[in-house]
Structure formats: structure tokens, C-alpha cells
Design a protein that fits this description.
- The chain is α+β, with helices and mostly antiparallel strands.
- A hairpin with a 2-residue loop joins strand 3 and strand 4.
- Helix 2 runs antiparallel to helix 3.
- The chain is globular.
- About 11% of the residues have low confidence.
Length: 156
Amino acid sequence: MKHMLLSVFLTIVAATAAFAQSESKAPPSKRTVEGQLIELERQLSAALVKEDAAVLDRLWSNDLVFTFPNGKVSNKAERLAGQKPAAPSSQSEAENTNDEVKVYLYENTAVVTVLSTWSGKANNQVYSSQFQATHVWAKQQGRWQLVAAHVSPVKK
């Protein structure tokens, strides 16, 4: 009887350990992935404001296709070359707020729409503009990277 109880106990312990391991290997939940992408969008916005080429290089795929509001298309190398922070002596202040972020997941690809407000002061002129962006993120080499972006101004 003792042997049978011990066998049952060991079977339960082994099954629990196996279940715990399978749980830890389970893919992240939809909510977790959405949270990761929203955080990446926040990092992207901050890096664009700071013109932080190192962060942008990490977030952007080598295959990035970027479409500007005027319809011009650019790639990662061209976009990074354009990221030259303003000189400290210039009177440029910029802020970017993501007003609304929506995530649409498709396995290892996500479409994220971002409504953002860019505001600040440049050459003693105050400005504020809203933009709607569509971003396509793909999981590449175990991490999310931006592979396509299209930005349009929001007409007031």
C-alpha cells in the first residue's frame, strides 16, 4: 500500500513538473505581446524625437520601407542618415505623444496604428500637428522589428 501511494505521489509530482515546464515554454499571451508592441512604439517615438540613431537602428528592420506623408519612400539606411540631432545651440524643442495605439496581431506579424501629436518650438515658432501612422512589425531573429511604416497628417 505504501508503495502504491508513493508511486501515485511521484507520478503527480512528475506530472506537475512537466506541466510547469510546458507552461513556461508556452507562447506569450496576446495581451503580453500587445503590451510589448505598445512599449516598442513608445521607444520608437522617444527615439524619433531625440533622433537617437542607435535605438532606431535596433528597432528598424534592415528591410524597412518607410513612406513619408508626401508619398516619398525611403529605406533604413536613408532614414538613419537623416537622423542628425539638432545642435545644442539651436532653439528646437520637440515632443511626441502617442494619443492612441491599436495592435492587430497575426502570429509573427503585427499591424499597429498610432495616432500621435508632435508639438514643440522651432525657431521661436510653436507648432502642434497630429499624424496617423500604420506600422508593420515582424518578429525577426526572436525580436520585434519595424518592417514598414506609413505616416499621414491628420487634417484639422
